[in-house]
Amino acid sequence: SAQLSSGDGQLNLQPILEAQKNIATANQSLQQQVQEYQQLPKAHIGMVKNAYATGNTQLTKMADKVNQLSGTFQILPDFLGSDQPRTYALMAMTTSEERSSGGLIGSVGVVTTDNGKISIGDFRSDGEYIPYGAGDPTEDEQRIFRQRGPLNMSFDVRDLAVYPDTSRSAEGMRAIWQRTPWGSNTQLDGVLMVDPVFLQELTKISGNVTIPDGTVLTGDNTAEFLLNKVYVDYPVSMQDALFAQVAEQAVGSMFSNIDLAKLTKVAQLMGSMAEGRHFSMYAFDETAEKTISDAGFTAQTPSSEEHPQVGVYVTEQNPSKMGWYIHRTSKVTRSTCDNDGSQTYHVEYTMTNTLESSQIGALTSYILGSGGQGVEKTLIYAPAGGSISNLKTSGGSVTESRQETLNGKTVYASNATIAPGESVTYSFDVTTSTKAVSDLTIDQTPMGWIDSGVTTDTAACSINRR
């Protein structure tokens, strides 16, 4: 396959622009075939019905993959500065200290792209950004994340991922950036939010990263190292620098020595990582952002009536690195498929504190915070055009349960305190919009691994596509 990069790190964008057109055409034709398949008359014989359902699942999966790949190719030329140089803030999040969109932001790097050449540098720790203030929160954000506590968010660079919408994190980042001596004269074109799982998956494609003490970080151990081992084995003063080094090397080599095969791998990775919120991006240029958002790269609270999602976003209220030990699993069970096109589901969302009491003595309060408990400020969103009912909780201690409004959307808010070895389960019923054409999924704060912990059972009925 054609080499896309020249020796000086420049990426030849011409083959990408050509591939972009071909993939878009193939994708359009495939999506049309899927639509035609889904509109076939309904079978009444069990065997035929099952064969149809299996075919539909496989076809939809393939169509989603191709659609994702096509979306990535649509955004790449613009992202790589095909028409003008671009500057992005690379926000490195640690999901060990959860914030709605990911985690605490420990450092921010600067990515510049110009006609296919990508350079990355100027990683600064959050400490260097803190003097330049907060990212202009709305009244709702102030009330929910600061006044309500128990941990009062500062809205400085560390807490910008507390917003469940990447657009708000980006606006906050730009407000702070414009006040800094290094950003005041440079237009910020957008942000990239990345977590250690994204960096780990990148090393599988771009190669291992060796840190100064000789430790080799690979496609298997990078996330655990950055989310847990670094806090156990290294002094606080070194942690941000190690994170920055891994981010700089992994992201910096995303597009180096690239051929079409590697580019396709990177494109697929960006798509799947964006789906799990391990990677998100936002551009301030409206036209560019529409393409990015349409391709699924801007994480946001549930907004599609056709593709219903429940949003569950957590922010750690015990200042600690306990996110590594809080495992979240969920079960989505379809109950009914109604003639008006809507469906109902039952959802059980469980958070478990996997820390064992025997481990507590060996860990510092920097990791454990107050007693190794998880204190999770939890925000639950209904699907766009749908609703949530019969919300109940069991296990642990859940306080301050209430219905709130956050930037125009209804949200069910509460604080769940989970001691080591304990679990808290939220159970509720969901009704989708009448426009829903796909199964209900869960959009959630990412964890320190790829598996989202979601299981889905749709056996009860098939969606009545209108």
What count of helical segments does DSSP give?
Answer: 12
CATH topology of the largest domain: Aminopeptidase
The multimeric state of the shown protein is single chain
* Whole-number tally of structural domains: 2
- In which range does the helix fraction lie? 25-40%
How is the main sheet built?
Answer: 5 strands, mixed
Run of helices and strands: HHEEEHHHEHEEHHHEHEEEHHEEEEEEE
List unreliable stretches of 5+ residues: none
Total strand segments: 17
Which features does this protein show?
five-stranded mixed β-sheet; globular; 34% helix; 466 residues; 29% strand; alpha+beta; Aminopeptidase; 2 domains
Describe what this molecule looks like in 3D.
- The protein has helices at residues 13-38, 46-79, 126-129, 139-147, 166-177, 196-206, 222-233, 236-252, 260-275, 286-294, 357-360, 365-368, and strands at 86-99, 102-114, 117-125, 190-194, 209-210, 216-217, 279-283, 309-316, 326-337, 343-353, 374-381, 387-394, 397-406, 409-418, 423-431, 441-444, 454-457.
- The protein is α+β, with helices and mostly antiparallel strands and 466 residues long.
- The chain has two domains: 86-294, Aminopeptidase (3-Layer(aba) Sandwich); 309-457.
- The protein has a five-stranded mixed β-sheet, sandwiched between helices.
- The longest helix is centred in the N-terminal third of the chain and has 34 residues, at 46-79.
- The chain is globular and about 65 Å long.
